[in-house]
Amino acid sequence: MRCHVLLPVDASRCTGMYGLVVPTITMVLSDQLCFVLMLLVAGSLATTSDPPIIDTHVHLTNVSMFNYTWQPVYGKRLGFDWTLDNYSQAVANASFHPSKVVFIEVHVDAPHWLKEAEYVQSLADAASPDSTPEIGAIVAYAPVEQGSSVSLWLDRLRDRVPLLRGIRRPIPGAASSPPVSDPCGYIHGEFVAGVSMLANYNLHFEFLIEEDVAGFNCSVAFIKQLPHVTFVVEHLGTPDIAGNHSFDSWAATMTQLAALPNVNIKLSGAPREDLHANTYDDWSVEEIRPYVAHVFAAFGYDRVMYGGNWFFVNLSTSLSKWIDAVTELLAGATPSQRAAVLGGNAQRVYRVAA
Predict the structure, then answer these.
(1) Is the N end or the C end of the chain the one with fewer CB atoms within 10 Å?
(2) String of DSSP letters for 154-219
């Protein structure tokens, strides 16, 4: 017996990650060869499908459950619950739609750091199988300045928050921390010891760099001490895009950080850094482009991850507009590079299930 095999193979699937185009052909094969070819085609489609699109920077709040000291500062703009339903509505008309998100701690008042992570884990547990987006990972707060004693917090987090993948703690002296006399003081002593503990729990550390020369220099010295810990630098390393007076020092720091193989960086937060006189939506893709280009040149496409910075993005622009800007900024990337930035790298760093 003979069977007629008609290929096209679905071109939209084959051009996903590797840019392959398979022409349409018609063949007459034996039953055995026909079956083998079908298996090969099915296998090729499975290996060329893109990873899910993952937003690596999403904040959620529950004002009835937690206090947020920072929230009244923003008044009506941010002073209410931010949920995944809000998020879904915000991306409805965007050029791409993340199917998974990474929750990032949102400076809940002490002592509710653990409860915040447990709350978000409960949201993930209660979600229906077909809900979109899905919480794929959690980055919680832990007082790493306690040095090795932070293990008490990490033990609790590990036991109660299965989706825990990393720890975020503002750098002492940064805008979201109490002021300190020595902006580089944290690179010595207990803070470094606490961050070093994360490797024992298979957790990474992510943070914002203070956007000045001292902050840039301190961050490099800090990370160099901990080659065994994975780091995620948020918001492109917080360049002063609107002022543009620190491009060289920022760029030099990014180049130094990129030379360290344990450092990853987020394509996030750029509209906020590009605001002129805090005027809403006063930013442009072209002003951001040189900074994004430098990050890709320094880190390559395999250590950069997309992040929406929801809900704080609403202070400067809409999430949909930022997503559209990211699409434009990735227009020159290959399909595999784009897939890596929008999801593949996050799957690796945050261990997000496919």
Answers:
(1) N
(2) HHHHHHH-TTEEEEE-PPTTSTTS---S-TTGGGSTHHHHHHHGGGGGT-EEEEPPPSSHHHHHHH
Q: How far apart are CA 106 and CA 234, in angstroms?
A: 14
Mean pLDDT value across the chain: 85
Task: Give the integer Cα–Cα distance in Å for 49 and 80.
Answer: 39
| Of 216, 289, 305, the residue nearest 256 (C-alpha) | 216
CB 66 within 8 A of CB 116: yes
Q: What is the spatial distance between Cα 345 and Cα 340, in angstroms, rounded to a whole number?
A: 5
Residue 168: name the closest of 237, 225, 105, 234 by CA.
105
What residues contact residue 173 under an 8 Å CB cut-off, 6+ apart? Answer: 179, 180, 182, 183, 185, 186, 210
For 59-63, what is the mean pLDDT?
Answer: 96
Cβ-proximal residues to 180 (8 Å cutoff; 6+ apart), any chain: 172, 173, 186
How far out from the chain centre does Cα 234 lie? 8
- How many angstroms separate the CA atoms of 309 and 273, rounded? 12
Question: Do the beta carbons of residue 196 and residue 230 sit within 8 Å?
Answer: no
Residue 187 vs residue 167, higher pLDDT: 167
What does pTM read for this prediction? 0.85
The whole-number pLDDT of residue 272 equals: 85
Render pLDDT for 281-291 as a digit per residue (tens, 0 to 9): 989 999 999 99
Tokens matching residue 209: 């760099």
DSSP state of 341: I
For residue 277, what pLDDT band results from cuts at 50, 70 and 90? low
Q: Are strands 2-7 and 25-30 parallel, antiparallel or unpaired?
A: antiparallel
Query: What is the pLDDT at residue 174?
Result: 56
The confidence score (pLDDT) of residue 276 equals: 74
